[in-house]
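Batch manifest, entry 17 of 40.
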Amino acid sequence: MRNKIITGLILLLAIIGIAYFANKKEVIAPNTNVVPVTPAPVVTNSKPIEFCFARFGQPNTNGYYDKYTLRLALDGEKATGELNLLPAEKDRKTGDFKGIVGPVNGEMMARTANLWWYTSAEGMNTEEELKIIFGEGTASIGLGEMVDRGDGVYIYKDPKKVSFNLYLTDVACTDLDERVNVESYLKENISKLSPVKAPVGGTWFVTYITIDIAKNTGVVTYEDGHREEKRNYTYVTEDKGEVKSLTIN
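Output type: C-alpha cells
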C-alpha cells in the first residue's frame, strides 16, 4: 500500500513538472509577428544656393564704365563668394570672401553677411572685414574707413559709420559666367584675334572690355605699350556659355 502511494506521488510530481516547463516555453517563445523597425534615412546637406548681383555704369568719354559684380553662395549660415569692384579708370579691388549670414531682418526683409574678404588691389593682397546687406533683389556693399587691427587684417574703424550706398541688383549667374568666359577668351587670344599685327617686338594685351549680353557684341581696347587699338567684336556661345567663336572687326 505504501509503495502505491509513493508511486502515485512520483507520477503526480512528474505531471506537474511537465506542465510547468510547457507553460514556461510557451511564455518565452519569440513573437514572430513583430514588424522590424526601419532606420530613418540620413539627411545630407543640399547644394549651396547661389545668388548673383551686378551694377554696370554708363561709358565715360573714353568708353570705360564702372563694373561691380557679386557672387554669393549660401550653405545654411555659411557664406562664400566673390566680390569685384572695378570703377572706371580708378583703383580696382577684387577677391574671394567667406563668413556667416545672419537671420532675416523683419523690417528690412534682408539679411546681413559678416565676411572676411581676401582682396587683391594694386599688387597688394590683404584680408579685410566686409559686410553685405542683401534681399528683395538687391545687395548693398558696406564701405567705410578701414584700419589695421594690429596683425595685418583690416577692419572697419567705426562700424556705425559704414555706408551701404553701393547698390547692386540681382542678375542671372549664367550672364556673369558668359561675361567671364568672353573676357578670358579675349585676353588669352587677342594676338590671334586682332585684325592688325602688333608692331615688331610688341605684344598685344587687353586693357578694357565692354560686353552686351543681349546682342552678343562688345568693344575691346588693347595695346602693346606704344599703340592702342579699340575695336568692336561679335561672339557666339555654346549652351554652357563658353565661347564658340569670336570675331574682332
